Amino acid sequence: MENQLDRFEIKMKELFAEKQIPEICYHNLDHTQLIVEQVKKMGAFYKLNDQELEDLVYAGWFHDVGYWRGTDKGHEKQGAEFAHKMLKEMGVSSERIQKIQSGILATQVPQKPQSLFESILCDADLSHFGMGNFREHTLLLKKEKECVHGKEIPLHSWLIGTREFMNNHSYHTDYAKEFLQQGKEKNLRYIEEEIKLMEDKTEKKSKKKSKDKKSEKGIETMFRVTSKNHLELSSIADNKANIMISVNSIIISIVVTVLIRKLEEFPNYTIPAILLISTCLGAMVFAILATRPKVTQGKVSKESIAKKESNLLYFGNFYDMSLKEYEEGMHEMMEDGEFLYDSMIRDIYFLGKVLAVKYKLLRKSYNVFMFGFIVSIISFLIASLFFDPLQY
């Protein structure tokens, strides 16, 4: 036949099923049954009489019913009040009820049990510190705290808090010191290792982030310096071309205005004059070609932007686009770092291609001027020394 304790346990299971809310995922029926099993083992270890064992079971069942309200504040007091009401209805004596209530209140942290009965309840309540499935218990408790307080708790912070709590905690009974203390120390070592691993990982991430920032800054500096160098080289090429155009223009002007009119008197200078004018014209043509602007089609398609093949940084690629199309393209490029860097790379590449053409034409201009001018001067000398104007 069922005795009073059996009927009580059936009733408590029904109450847990009815009143327990989902947010309280740790201090629930499973946790309560675990504590009840622990107090039974510890009571048997100390060879307590049947009434004391029964009172421990009552206290174990009631110690966390205060969580039915969905909060962890004052749950011990709520549990003690519920125990008084229910045990009184069951006909339990006032003396026993008072003892059970004292045991429930003793589980409040910081624990300060005053008797073996209270010490057993306190050690049973925190027995998971020394169990093999400690990790599952502490993570479940973390989840419950997050649900109750409505905010996420970082795992690192939780483990540090748990470590501090466990270091400040001491078991009260010889049973717990013999059967739980060793497991507790093992679990403390596990927490220490987890904290160290997380801190090492955070430190590595911090170093990597710092390195990435330096790398990104270096990339930006590289693009800035390279673009500046290209622009300066282009400016130098334009200046050299302008010098060449100016010098040859002056020479042609002098030859046309002075020497051409004297050719009737000095016909032997006709060929040297033609050579000199041809040299100056050739040098000017190459210099002008080097400075002649070249503009592309002026419109980038949506397809090329989607394929990340366009360069919106050069005016020649967007001057014929509408403002809206250009803004959309620029926003898409700014939101995609790879697209932005690719555009800058293309910009530098094509600047380099333009510079290569400029310097090739400029080199040709200088070569034509140098060799043509030498040949022209030599021809003038030959015409002056070996040919008499009268022979013509």
Automatic annotation (TrEMBL):
Compartment(s): Cell membrane
Transmembrane segments: 243-263, 269-289, 368-387
Stretches assigned to the HD domain: 41-126
Chain ranges of the Pycsar effector protein domain: 222-382
Protein name (database record): HD domain-containing protein
GO cellular component: plasma membrane
GO BP terms in the entry: defense response to virus
Domain of life per record: Bacteria
InterPro entries reported in the protein's UniProt record: HD/PDEase_dom (IPR003607), HD_domain (IPR006674), PycTM_dom (IPR043760)
Entries under Pfam families matching the protein: HD, PycTM
Native organism taxonomy: Bacteria, Pseudomonadati, Bacteroidota, Cytophagia, Cytophagales
Signal peptide annotation: none
Keywords from the UniProt entry: Antiviral defense, Cell membrane, Membrane, Nucleotide-binding, Transmembrane, Transmembrane helix
GO molecular function, one term: nucleotide binding
